[in-house]
Write a structure and sequence with these properties.
- The complex is a heterotrimer of chains A (420), B (190) and C (170).
- Chain A has 17 helices and 8 strands.
- By secondary structure, chain A is mostly helical.
- Chain A has one domain: Cytochrome-c3 Hydrogenase, chain B, CATH 1.10.645.10.
- In chain A, the strands form 3 sheets. In chain A, strands 1-2-3 form a 3-stranded antiparallel sheet. In chain A, strands 6-7-8 form a 3-stranded antiparallel sheet. Chain A has a two-stranded antiparallel ribbon with strand order 4-5.
- By secondary structure, chain B is α/β, with parallel strands linked by helices.
- Chain B has one domain: Beta Polymerase, domain 2 (2-Layer Sandwich), CATH 3.30.460.
- Classes of the chains: A mainly alpha (420), B alpha/beta (190), C mainly alpha (170).
- Chains in contact: A-B, A-C, B-C.
- The interface between A and B is large, with 46 and 44 residues.
Chain lengths: 420, 190, 170
């Protein structure tokens, strides 16, 4: 008896028109003959930490060439900022490196302050440091959670996100939003610390110290973890410098470059903290460095909150910073400044500046070129993730695909950062 | 004991070595900018990277600026000391790890066919920075081994970061024009 | 013996069977209960909303209590596509292909402002709302939406599915 089948639907699959010729020069000659296999680790993949496309040329399981292809998250933020005034553009910068929005806000605000020679009061600087270090902890929590999840340690993901919720609660107290608060603005911060913030921070610090020790207890001496990370993805120091790596990826190879120590900003020279350095430049070193960075961040937060001075939380320069609402009822100048700043915005000179800070990923720099008017001519962000993804091409040859997942996790890039 | 040469003034040493090739020097907000013409860029960068007393061995960033419509060339009515001969500016931001200081090297590429030599053999990291500028601003980097588009799709037309490229703004739907806009907006059925 | 009497007027099958462990229901309710009970989302996070989606999946705001314990990586095995984050023009053919690869029944939640309407970005690179590419069932607003907002969106989708009629699609 023949079983009846449903009628065949017309397959309307688009045939891919390209061929291997397009890749000549980018992959080795063996791919042209079919000796090695071309595999697309596509934009939709659980381990690529975002929409990254990796074109792998594989000889069995071993990677011969790895070609990263980005741009799937390119949002045109830099062009969009050119059509907004400076104060309004701060909200757009939040969404670039979406794991550390406070760092993006800070680098943009610092570029504006450098160009306008705008002062930032001491209290605002200290609050900014507390926010940046809390952001570093939150970002490293996501890094550890996703990196461990990719390597198979699934419970670390849940623990890390539990800690991150505590930090996000504190950010919600400050700015009303868990992520993307636009809390750090040119001249200082948006508003003063609310009364419930300090007790929450006091409770959080010893709790987090314990939790970082917990994560280390789970992973650092774990034989599976060590098997999968020791000796993988080794980057030599000269190569790291030449490839433009910064942050933990550079320090893992032994180069002691941390912008907080080299070119201190926001009062970092007042705080005592260490910069962890690696020796071998492999995935394990970069993991240990970031765990220590979390502890040093807690140390900085302790010192910052103990030395929090009184004073204004934002600059009083009314040419750049809008006045408080309470002043509007009393002073005519305040009304005029408020009107001018919220309709047109302040103007910056037709000059260029470059400012770089240490975000959790590495060095994020802002190149700002003004027009003399209220909108910028060009804002370019040099983001650490762009350099780190570029480095995958050079670091991954000779490794297996499973090792590539570990290398991707340890380079700690975020696609919103690299594509902007 | 390693012999470290004392820090030298980059402007002086560059002028000593290159003379008139350094077209202009500018200082603003504590940052020094040297202006050269495009064909001299690799030589000057090689000198700055390896000269004793300078050692600008880390490339922080390569950025491009578009001075359209009239802030460049003969039409530029800014200060006389502000040198802006062409439409596209390409700025190389250098950092010296040894002496802990920064420097900017700027070059201007002309409007009709902007070309700047590539510095990929000095720093491997310049690869994607240059590709991004070639993609978004249209400045060609000669000697770059892989000049494909980086951020935009391969078949995209135009260079979005140029000032004459439209933003691609979609008219916002309010209650009075919602129906009009909804007629032309693509909407997926299945 | 007399004639066997038929069921009394008004007595249902379940009353006659008593506590034999049988439940009667309508076909609609059964199918929709099965569908909403374990609706597996596709692991598809694009940008910032993906981090909030991961936070919703994690310990504090647990999504497993709604049946969404795991995110399937393969579109063939998942029912729900949560578009979390901005969809750019380069990414749109990929989204469409993933949606086409998913087997029926499938639903789409557009999470966040960028997926619903283009969000903060009104420019050349961002598709102004993912409903230009794929049909959307539920829109969740927010930038990024709080985990509670995403859960409300998922529960709204469950309500919508519970009101489905099997004669529409069979």
């Amino acid at each position: 008896m023949v079983v009846s089948r449903p009628p065949e639907k017309e397959q309307q699959v688009e045939q891919w028109e390209g061929n291997v010729e397009q890749l000549r020069g980018l992959v080795t000659e063996r791919a042209m003959t079919g000796e090695t296999m071309l595999l697309n680790m596509g934009p939709h993949h659980p381990s690529t930490h975002g929409v990254l496309r990796l074109l792998l040329e594989l000889d069995g399981e071993e990677i011969v060439t790895c070609l990263p292809d980005i741009g799937f998250l390119h949002t045109g933020i830099e062009k969009n900022i050119e059509s907004k005034s400076y104060e309004k553009a701060v909200t757009l910068t939040d969404r670039m490196d979406y794991l550390s929005p406070m760092s993006n806000n800070t680098v943009f605000s610092m570029a504006i302050e450098k160009m306008a020679d705008l002062d930032v009061p001491e209290r605002a600087q200290t609050i900014r440091v507390i926010c940046l270090e809390l952001q570093r902890i939150a970002s490293h929590c996501v890094w550890l959670g996703t990196h461990a999840l990719d390597m198979g340690a699934m419970s670390v993901f849940l623990y890390c996100f539990r800690e991150r919720e505590r930090v996000l609660e504190m950010f919600e107290m400050l700015s009303g939003q868990r992520l993307m608060g636009s809390y750090i603005r040119p001249g200082g911060v948006w508003r003063d610390l609310p009364p419930e913030f300090m007790p929450a921070l006091d409770e959080f610090i010893p709790y987090m110290y314990e939790k970082v020790d917990d994560y280390e207890r789970l992973l650092t001496n774990n034989p599976i973890w060590k098997d999968r990370t020791l000796g993988i993805g080794v980057i030599e120091p000269e190569d790291a410098l030449s490839m433009g790596l910064t942050g933990a990826a550079l320090r893992g190879s032994g180069i002691n470059y941390d912008i907080r120590k080299a070119e201190p900003y926001m009062g970092y020279e007042k705080y005592e903290f260490e910069v962890p350095l690696g020796e071998h430049g492999d995935v394990y070193d970069r993991y240990i460095i970031r765990m220590h960075e979390m502890r040093q961040a807690l140390r900085i937060i302790e010192q910052a909150k103990d030395s929090l001075p009184d004073g204004p939380f934002r600059s009083e320069n009314r040419k750049f910073v809008p006045p408080k609402r309470s002043e509007l009822g009393q002073s005519m100048e305040a009304v005029i400044h408020h009107f001018k700043l919220w309709t047109e915005g302040f103007s910056l000179a037709d000059e260029e500046v470059y400012v770089a800070i240490e975000s959790p990923r590495g060095e994020i720099g802002c190149y700002l070129h003004g027009t003399g008017g209220n909108k910028p001519r060009r804002v370019h962000f040099k983001t650490p993730s762009l350099m780190h993804i570029q480095a995958l091409k050079h670091v991954s040859s000779g490794h297996m695909v499973a090792d590539l997942v570990g290398i991707i996790g340890s380079m700690d890039f975020v696609l919103g950062d690299s594509d902007r | 004991m390693v012999n470290i040469a004392p820090a030298a003034d980059p402007v002086e040493k560059a002028k000593e070595r290159f003379g008139d090739d350094i077209l202009h020097v500018k200082t603003f907000a504590g940052e020094t900018t040297l202006v050269v013409s495009p064909e001299n860029v690799p030589d000057v960068l090689r000198f700055l990277k390896s000269a004793a007393g300078l050692t600008y061995n880390f490339l922080s960033d390569i950025s491009a600026v578009d001075y359209y419509p009239n802030d460049y060339g003969d039409h530029y009515d800014g200060e006389e000391s502000d040198f802006r001969p062409e439409r596209f500016g390409v700025a190389y931001h250098l950092y010296s790890m040894l002496y802990n200081r920064r420097l900017r090297l700027k070059t201007y590429a002309m409007e009709e066919d902007p070309v700047v030599p590539s510095v990929i053999d000095l720093w491997v990291g310049a690869d994607w920075l240059e590709r991004e500028i070639a993609d978004m601003m249209g400045v060609r980097f000669e000697g770059h081994p892989d000049p494909r588009r980086l951020l935009m799709p391969d078949d995209w037309d135009g260079h979005p970061h140029r000032r004459d490229y439209p933003l691609g703004y979609e008219t916002i739907q309010f209650s009075f024009n919602a129906d009009e806009i909804a007629e032309h907006k693509p909407f997926a059925e299945e | 013996m007399g004639v066997m009497e038929g069921p009394k007027q008004g007595a249902t099958v379940s009353q006659k069977l008593g506590n034999l462990g049988v439940v009667t229901t309508s076909l609609d309710a059964a199918i929709n209960w099965a569908r909403t009970g374990a609706m597996w989302p596709l692991l598809f996070g694009l940008a910032c909303c993906a981090i909030e989606m991961m936070a919703t999946q994690a310990g504090n705001y647990d999504l497993s209590r709604f049946g969404m314990e795991l995110n399937r990586a393969s579109p063939r095995q998942s029912d729900l596509l949560i578009v979390a984050g901005r969809v750019t023009r380069k990414m749109s053919p990929v989204v469409r292909q993933l949606y086409d690869q998913m087997a029926d029944p499938k639903w789409v939640i557009s999470m966040g402002d960028c997926a619903s309407c283009g969000g903060v970005y009104n420019n050349y690179a961002v598709v102004q709302g993912v409903d230009e590419i794929i049909p959307v069932d539920v829109y969740v607003a927010g930038c990024p939406p709080r985990p509670e907002q995403l859960m409300h969106g998922i529960l709204t989708l469950h309500e919508k599915v519970k009101n489905d009629n099997w004669s529409d699609w069979a």
